[in-house]
Amino acid sequence: MEACCRYCGFCKQLDRAAVVLLAKMKTVENDMEQKRTATLDLGNGSLPLEFPIMAGSMGPEVVDIRSLHARSGVFTYDPGYFSTASCSSKITFIDGDAGILLYRGYPIEQLARQCDFMEVCYLLMNGELPTSDQKMSFDNTIKEHTMVHEQLARFYTGFRRDAHPMAVMVGVVGALSAFYHDAMDISDAAQRELSAFRLVAKLPTITAMAYKYNIGQPFIYPHNNLNYAENFLHMMFATPAEEYKSNPVLARALDRILILHADHEQNASTSTVRLSGSSGANPFACISAGIACLWGPAHGGANEACLNMLEEIGDVSRIGEYIKRAKDKNDSFKLMGFGHRVYKNFDPRAKLMRETCHEVLNELGLQNDPLFKLAMELEKIALEDEYFISRKLYPNVDFYSGIVQRALGIPVSMFTAIFAMARTVGWIAQWSEMISDPEYKIGRPRQLYTGAATRDVVTIALRK
Ligand code: ACO
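Above: the input entities. Below: the structure tokens describing the complete assembly.
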């Protein structure tokens, strides 16, 4: 056959052959990419083991060591999960070194400035931002579920009036599990969604009721003409004797707090919700477990602890003394609202929160708020200090959120409860993602046992 040009049949065949060859090479390349492995030599004379490397859409690759124990008899050791990915997830992405936070791929800055909390809830639950029709329908669905069963209100009277709101929240949200027998089948996506609607809708009602019980005022029913943030402020601050008219700047500030706290990938409380849920437990009980975990001062409780710390410092002249204490290894004091396991750069939420802080204080004519000035000075001094620089300790979201909440009239003891209200959508979205994952299994970490070796019981009379 004469091969004269690329248009003759022979040349065309050659072209086609080249294309096929290229495609084959690509497949081999892709296969090689997919089959890239990490080799582990245990140093005990056994053959090295290969483990597949898995790549996500962004962020560090992971080594899949699920077969490690079966193949070698050893476990990995990673208390505090410094290097362990506990699941795969499509919901939230953090690049802690770059200070990036994305919900479903969207930067938190854009969501905070262009969306409201209901849009963000829809996004976290469904994977996409809603159209205006979808948004309207979602808003209405949430509003349909804002009331709580009248019998749930009786739970509050079982608590002391001075109980911490988070103690009340753990109990009352857990108690929701006893109320919804119509949505017990967690393998049914529609029932899971119904539980999510109920949780997102009722959390503001339950949170505001915890406050009203604490101060001895009657509970205020939700008002479905108001948006999510306005409704919460109404339930917090209205009384049967007096309507509460919310200030749009303050309602928007609360809405931003809710957006910024809505999800944060596999943090301690979210991992608690996933671990509780992995046994097939009731979703309301799982969220209650998440609230319990969030309460701690190293996690969500930091906003309360941070404001208490600022009040304790009291004056710019005392900052040096507290910075010294934070650096002293013999002193358990830490600069609350500073440091983060993942962010080794500015927490992007802290920047947005500082912006909101300015807006709220300006609106209220509190530009010279002494606590805000103190916080800004403390931040400045810490960021110039070698101890904080070398450890990459930056302000986290909780550093400024307390000042905003305080300006909104929310008492310090309620700060973490509001965090829980915001995070509920993230918890339930992560829970639902886990349940619908075909690879999901009960979470069961292993351990390095360091206790007594096997020994025999000595009868009580002979024990020394
Ligand atoms: N003040 C003073 N020193 C600190 C602080 C702080 N706030 N945070 C960390 N350090 C020091 C540690 O003492 C440690 O020093 P070393 O290396 O000399 O031992 C080093 O920085 C690393 O800190 P770790 O505690 O090992 O970091 P880890 O990732 O385990 O902890 C945490 C992160 C819990 C957030 C910690 O920074 C902290 O306790 N911060 C204060 C509480 C807080 O603001 N929590 C809110 C976190 S955000 C959120 O959950 C919403």
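Note for the figure: Strands lie at 37-40, 49-54, 62-63, 92-95, 100-103, 106-107.
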